[in-house]
From TrEMBL, chain A:
Presence of the UniProt keyword Manganese in the record: no
Protein's recorded name: Maltose/maltodextrin transport system permease protein MalG
Function: Part of the ABC transporter complex MalEFGK involved in maltose/maltodextrin import. Probably responsible for the translocation of the substrate across the membrane.
Organism taxonomic ancestry: Bacteria, Pseudomonadati, Pseudomonadota, Alphaproteobacteria, Hyphomicrobiales
Domain of life, per lineage: Bacteria
Membrane spanning residue stretches: 21-43, 91-110, 122-146, 158-178, 199-224, 257-278
Membrane topology, as annotated: Multi-pass membrane protein
Protein localization: Cell membrane
UniProtKB/TrEMBL annotation, chain B:
Annotated PROSITE patterns: ABC_TM1
Organism: Devosia rhodophyticola
Phylogenetic lineage: Bacteria, Pseudomonadati, Pseudomonadota, Alphaproteobacteria, Hyphomicrobiales
Record keywords: Cell membrane, Membrane, Transmembrane, Transmembrane helix, Transport
Bilayer-spanning residue ranges: 32-54, 95-116, 128-145, 236-258, 287-306
Protein name, per record: Sugar ABC transporter permease
One Pfam family hit: BPD_transp_1
Topology within the bilayer: Multi-pass membrane protein
Family designation: Belongs to the binding-protein-dependent transport system permease family.
């Protein structure tokens, strides 16, 4: 559009909202703040070690290379073997945690949503209060407990821990979803001769699929990113998960920054993809409870 | 037992006193089956450790972790912590870390939520991008920022030189004056979008008609925000601030990976201190006492959290 045609229309407008511009500038600032670190991570990961250690830095890699990624993903090299091992461990632990979490949390949340029994309120708040306690506080007794049960250095210790610490939130979220499913649906099924379990399994469960998806991504991401317990419970190389693994791996000798950036990038890919694909559920899970309840 | 009808639920809610609790529990024993798996797991992993931490806090534990050799010393662990000189510094750091992180994360989140409230092209994409730091692991974030802050090859230092703020790259995390603010920036980067997403959900509850009515009555943007929007956001803000505070209190990964509390304890907070005492010096008794102190603080915050949540519930019922 030319200046001539826009000028009169601009004059006709009542007034320009300055707040809208403040908002835009603010968003631009936030976007820069958010994206720059991630961008620099990616740019560093495609540099050679020599190119990364320069002052002033190469703002744009002069000779971009994928060798850092190739090294990490090469199943024949020693670095690649270790990295893929950690990756698989992380995936295994997160997956088992998520599945078990759903199996345990769904009935509990259903009970909290549907039944009234003595101690329900107390139970529920004790479930919530767990979110208040720092993981480091649980470390020592849990470490002793795991040692006593012979679970140190096994994935079982992590799965048990993540499962429990994920439960309160999962129950809390799922209860919100069950609350929104009309009880009449189940009553109708019961009248038609379904047992209570059948009504629950064939009527309520399918309707609460979004809730189950939301809870699942939440526990998957939580387990994938967890560091403190993995750092304390695992000391054997081949049982380590990614967050602990990459640490031991790159600080043994002088830090290979481009390699480390490539590793953090690969480590972030699964959760970011999961988040982007299932964003709707994730956001709902995050805000459910706090806003609605 | 059949599923309670709404009338039954209403009748139960109205019943003023609960009598025969035991009989009710026996009557409804099958209901407990649904909660049992969750309860058992939580008893083992949550209740027992809490009990054990409190017990250990009264003992002097041997460093080889043979707990049968522990010695009862009463409140000595507590006295030692509360009178030690480092306790005051660490508490100060914890306070600055928690309050500053929470304050700025909330402020940025509120600004972002208000700016994103209006529909525009690319709004969904922008929201998703802003949320990525919240989703990625804190370990990854810590390494990336450690590299950005690097004393020789860090991009932030280089940019500062480029734009003429300093003539030498700044050493952010090896300097006792800049280390804590530098870590707080990382923490804010990681969690401001949590506040954003909570407040965006909260903004949806602000009735549009009310805002339009205020506009018709001649209220300017600030007045509309302060008198219409903000009162509706109070509940969500309360919960968000509390959740952020709890998360920051419990934040371990960022300070641990980036500095491990250094240099000279300048970025040591309660959590890193507890970890060092327990797993660096193997003094579980002392660390347990520290944990109990932290418990008490968390319980206080937890009380307000539950109150903020249930108050919202009451208003909804009414």
């Amino acid at each position: 559009m030319s200046m001539v045609s826009t000028a009169p229309s601009r004059r006709r407008r009542v007034k320009i909202d300055p707040w809208r511009w403040v908002g835009r500038i603010f968003l631009l600032f936030l976007l820069t703040f958010t994206v720059l670190p991630m961008l620099w991570m990616v740019l560093t990961s495609i540099k050679s070690q020599f190119a990364a250690m320069q002052y002033p830095p190469q703002w744009w890699p002069a000779e971009p290379t994928l060798q850092n990624y190739a090294k990490l993903l090469d199943p024949n090299g020693s670095t690649g073997q270790e990295f893929l091992r950690y990756f698989w461990n992380s995936f295994y632990v997160s997956m088992v945690t998520t599945i078990l979490g759903v199996i345990v949390a769904v009935p509990a949340a259903y009970a909290f949503s549907r039944f009234t029994f003595p101690g329900r309120t107390f139970l529920f708040f004790s479930v919530l209060l767990r979110n208040m306690f720092p993981s480091v506080v649980f470390l020592m007794p849990l470490f002793l407990l795991m040692r006593w049960m012979g679970l140190v250095n096994t994935h079982g210790s992590l799965i048990l821990t993540y499962l429990t610490f994920g439960l309160p939130l999962s129950i809390w979220l799922l209860k919100g979803f069950f609350d929104n499913i009309p009880i009449q649906l189940e009553q109708a099924a019961r009248i038609d001769g379904a047992t209570r379990f059948q009504a629950f399994f064939f009527i309520v469960m399918p309707l609460s699929t979004p809730g189950i998806i939301a809870t699942s991504i939440f526990s998957f991401i939580g387990a994938w990113n967890e560091y403190v317990y993995a750092y304390t419970f695992l000391s054997k190389q081949d049982s380590m998960t990614l967050p602990v693994g990459i640490q031991r791996f790159f600080t043994e000798f002088a830090t290979d920054w481009p390699g480390l950036m490539a590793a953090t990038f690969l480590m972030s890919v699964p959760v970011v993809v999961l988040f982007l694909v299932l964003q709707k559920y994730f956001v709902r899970a995050l805000t459910e409870g706090a806003v609605k309840h | 037992m059949s599923i309670a009808t709404e009338r039954e639920i209403a009748a139960r809610a109205k019943r003023p006193i609960r009598f025969g609790v035991l009989r009710q529990m026996v009557d409804r024993r099958s209901d407990y089956l649904y909660v049992l798996p969750a309860l058992i797991v939580m008893m083992i992993v949550i209740a027992y450790p809490i009990y054990y931490t409190i017990e250990l806090s009264f003992f002097n534990t041997p460093s080889n972790l043979q707990m049968k050799d522990k010695v009862f010393i009463g409140l000595d662990n507590y006295a030692r912590i509360l009178t030690s000189r480092s306790f005051r510094e660490v508490t100060m750091n914890t306070f600055i870390w928690t309050v500053a992180s929470t304050f700025f994360a909330f402020l940025l989140g509120l600004g972002a939520a208000l700016s994103l409230h209006r529909e525009f092209l690319g709004r969904g994409v922008l929201r998703a991008v802003l949320l990525i730091p919240y989703v990625v692991s804190a370990v990854a974030a810590s390494y990336v920022w450690k590299w950005l802050y690097h004393s020789d090859f860090g991009v932030i230092g280089a940019l500062a030189v480029q734009f003429g703020f300093t003539d030498r790259p700044i050493n952010f995390i090896d300097n006792i004056h800049t280390v804590l603010p530098s870590l707080i920036v990382v923490n804010i980067w990681k969690e401001f979008s949590f506040a954003m997403i909570m407040l965006m959900a909260g903004l949806q509850t602000v009735p549009d008609q009310l805002l339009r009515a205020a506009q018709v009555d001649g209220a300017n943007a600030w007045q509309r925000f302060w008198h219409v929007t903000f009162p509706h956001l109070k509940g969500v803000s309360m919960v968000t601030v509390l959740l952020l505070m709890v998360a920051n209190f419990n934040a371990f990964i960022i300070p641990w990976i980036m500095t491990s509390g250094g240099p000279a304890g300048a970025s040591d907070i309660w959590i890193t201190q507890i970890y060092t005492i327990a797993f660096g010096r193997q003094r579980y008794g002392l660390a347990s006492a520290y944990s109990v102190i932290l418990f008490i603080v968390m319980m206080t915050l937890g009380y307000f959290y539950v109150r903020a949540l249930t108050r919202g519930d009451d208003t909804r019922v009414k």
